[in-house]
Amino acid sequence: MNSNQQIKKKLNSILPFVQKPGRYVGGEYNRVKKDWDSVRSHVALVFPDIYDLGLPNLGVMILYEEINKRPDALCERAYLPWLDMEKAMRENEIPLYSLESKTPLSQFDLIGFTLPYETLYTNVLNALDLAGIPLHASERVENHPIIIAGGHAAYNPEPMASFIDAFVIGEGEEVIHEIIDLLQRAKEHGTTRAETLQSLQALPGLYVPSLYNPSYHPDGTFESLTPLTKEFPTSVSKRFCGTLPPPPTRFLVPSIDVVHNRIAMEIMRGCTRGCRFCHAGMVNRPVREQPVATIISAIEEALANTGYEEIALLSLSSSDYTQIGSLVDEITRRFKDRNLTISLPSLRIESFSVELMEKLKGVRQGGFTLAPEAASDRMRNRINKPIQAEQLLATAREIYLRGWNTLKLYFMIGQPGETMEDVQAIADLSKAVIVEGRKTIGKRANLHVGVSTFVPKPHTPFQWASLDPLAVVLEKQNLLKDQLRGPGLKMTWSNPRETILEAALSRGDRNLSKVIETAWRNGAKFDAWQDQFNFNIWMDAFEAHHLSPDFYASRPRSMEEAFPWDHIHTGVARKFLQREYLRSLEGTLTDDCRDGCHACGILTEFSDLRRANPSELWLCPEVN
Predict the structure, then answer these.
(1) How many Å is the Cα radius of gyration of the chain?
(2) How far apart are CA 202 and CA 299, in angstroms?
């Protein structure tokens, strides 16, 4: 009996006794199952959280479909089991396996982890341990899979450097094929693991941490990262696609309910707004769009392939898509009789956004979401999001008038320079909105205010800023909790202790690998889950290694300080980020990139790629 058969037999005995056994059996509609022996390369994609969250992840879905198009490779999936299933797997010696074929992950050639956020780090260690793969890259030998990771949290790879063989920096649709081709050649020529890793470092957009040594100043601050030999680059530039590939259309249809049962259609990648706190808006430059015809064709095909009744048109700023009016008109015309729910997240605060959603109302509707982020003019100028209070109130009035009973507003506290008066402005503006709603539609008007806490992210103008101390965050939250209550009002907020951890991990250096491992060994996992997050475990782990989260999260930074992520180049120049930070301190706005180039560096860095894609609409002015 082979390992696959053994796993299947053991699963039959334990699945009746765990929550949601459908998480662990596979067999989804549109899943791809190939004959193992008929292909040269075997790839496993792992979303390091439970199936319910991982299955709808668009990044995994894109790569799953992309790899399985190859006749010489297969791609299968794995997710982290929930606590009850993990216990049963360990007791019955069942390794972490792929859903498609029940093959242990240790038998794959390549394992790819997606890291959309930092609080998944301990889950990655848990997945490696469940798979029987050494946690440390330095302890893996020739028969172990190559472990890669990518995603937004990989733009500062150093905290996870001890555990990952190679990081993919940027977009993966093209580079994944180069990685598979390289591993096939390595296998064919009997290349050693060490030689393979060196070859991976030679691929644009790949970073192999074991080929670099960090150094630190006597006070513990990061000094520099040095390649082991001169053949390795001193910096790694992100990968991105000059032309967006066609969207995936064979979305997996789960057998159980998951967080999003829908078609996720990316209409645009990148953003020109320049919000100074926004990591995605900086690292995803430049803007590239899908043509309307491509989107409509992909929606048609995806509907036929899935039977889904919800479509999300995704981008960082949907109403900035240059053909958004034509797209919405065509969707309304083409699908008006299909009884679909179509959502446009990330809309600007203006009447045009309401008109767009009004056109889609005929196909069903839910709540309407806007993200002003700040409520005072002073803070809006600092974060570079100039939205007047009158504009928000007028837009809210239009939303309630046109049939939406619930409006959701998202704000962020703790941004650089914020005072209690700025926080009070959030309460005042929110109360003004619900008053407007009550005047417009009476008691049916509802307002949901979501309040997150600012994290100074790498590769943004605010990477020099500090996280608010815990006591200050609690004071700001308490002010809002006291005031945002009453009929029609609801407020949600983030756990400030989770924010401290997120900030420390996102801004950390390689020393945090020890903290992450200690926290995991002491029981930390599912840190993004409120009922599982244990702040004390993390504080004990920091203390065990004589480190403090405040050192990474709350310590003021000079403009000259080197960052652990400086060797990762997103295409946006450090001097541009510095200039934007100084403009923030002055309260000076920077116009949208569509209104004139601000020389962020992205087109200079990737000028060759732009010339190679002359027909692609890159929404940045030409740089001479």
Answers:
(1) 24
(2) 38
pLDDT of residue 403 exceeding 90: no
**Whether residue 215 has pLDDT greater than 80:** yes
**pLDDT greater than 80 at residue 54:** yes
Could you tell me the two tokens for 541? Answer: 């782990």
**Rounded Cα–Cα distance for residues 131 and 95 (Å):** 5
pLDDT of residue 361 exceeding 70, the answer is no
Q: Is 214 exposed, middle or buried (0-12, 13-18, 19+ CB in 10 A)?
A: middle
Is residue 311 scored above 70 in pLDDT? yes
Q: What's the pLDDT at 124?
A: 98
Given a cut of 70, whether residue 495 has pLDDT beyond it is yes
CA–CA separation, 487 and 569 (whole Å): 49
**Cα 550 from chain centroid?**
24
Distance, CA of 350 to CA of 393 (rounded, Å): 10
User: If you ran DSSP here, which 8-state letter would residue 139 be given?
Assistant: G
Closest of 378, 313, 308, 381 to residue 345, by C-alpha: 313
Residue recorded with tokens 């790569």? 63
**Cβ-contact 206, 167 below 8 angstroms:** yes
Least confident of 350-364, 456-470, 604-618: 604-618
What does the alpha-carbon distance between residue 263 and residue 342 come to, in Å, rounded to a whole number?
9
Smallest CA-to-CA distance from 24 within 108, 86, 73 is with 86
Q: How far apart, in Å, do the first and last CA atoms of the chain sit?
A: 65
CB neighbourhood size of 494 (10 A): 19
Q: Give the residue from 490, 416, 510, 606 showing the smallest Cα distance to 161.
A: 510
Cβ-count burial 144-155 (b if 16+ within 10 Å, e if not):
bbbbbbbbbbbb
Helix (H) or strand (E) holding 425: helix 420-441
Cα–Cα distances in angstroms (integers) from residue 315 to residues 284, 287, 318, 348, 374, in the given order: 11, 10, 5, 12, 21
Q: Which domains does the chain have, with CATH numbers?
A: 3-237 (3.40.50.280)
User: Exposed e or buried b for every residue in 160-181, given b needs 16+ CB within 10 A?
Assistant: bbbbbbbbbbbbbbbbbeebbe
Computed over every residue of the chain, the mean pLDDT equals 94
| pLDDT tier, 249 (very low <50, low <70, confident <90, very high otherwise) | very high
Q: What is the mean pLDDT of residues 445-461?
A: 98
- CA distances 325 to 167, 277, 332, Å, are 38, 28, 11
What average pLDDT score do residues 254-261 get?
94
